[in-house]
Amino acid sequence: MKRLIILMLSVVLIVSGLWFTTTNGYKFIKGYLLFKTSETQQTVLAEPIERDEEPEAETPEVETKESVAPDDLYPIRPTKGEHIGELLIPSLEAELPIYHGTHEDELEKGVGHFEGSVLPGENDNSVLSGHRDTVFRKLGEVEKGELLVVRTSAGEFTYKVRRMRIVDKEDRTVIVPKPKATLTISTCYPFDFIGAAPDRYIIMADLVSAEYAN
């Protein structure tokens, strides 16, 4: 009788042990898999997302006084050193002459237009440069959302400031093409630096209004 009881208790203990072992083993395996899955997700989330330095904003709708822009805004292209228009900065109450070219001869007279870029009003990146201690002395006071106006023989073009940034003087991304009509203004930085400044202060603006000349 005692042997039978002992045998039954042994069977119960063995079955209980097997149940406990398999149940906890299942929980352990399940927990381990969940941990590894969570760890993988965290690793993916922790990795930096590669993006362009400057994500392009949606192209703004350009208001025009004419329904269709001329096919060629500038039938006659300007020559080096030629006066091509004016840059108006309303917030600074400034009206600055623009000359075609960015050599010292042009920059001594006013704002220079980089010859390798499109002319104001045209689709792509129109680049203007000027000295920080003359025409662009107060450029750092221009704020995001303000308007910049360029008047040329092709008409009057209004740009809205989208971004300001500071880059190294050797940074060539300032003059890269853009998929929309953009105005880029560049000057040396810091503004109060004595000697050849190491950086460039950049303002980027999108064309928001165009009034074409007849």
UniProtKB/TrEMBL annotation:
Q: Bias category Acidic residues: which stretches?
A: 50-61
For the region Disordered, what residue ranges are annotated? 47-75
Q: Give the record's keywords alphabetically.
A: Hydrolase
Q: State a single Pfam family of this protein.
A: Sortase
Q: Which InterPro entries match?
A: Sortase, Sortase_D, Sortase_D_1, Sortase_dom-sf
Q: Gene3D superfamilies attached here?
A: Sortase
Q: Identify this protein by name.
A: Class D sortase
Instruction: Identify the species of origin.
Output: Alkalihalophilus lindianensis
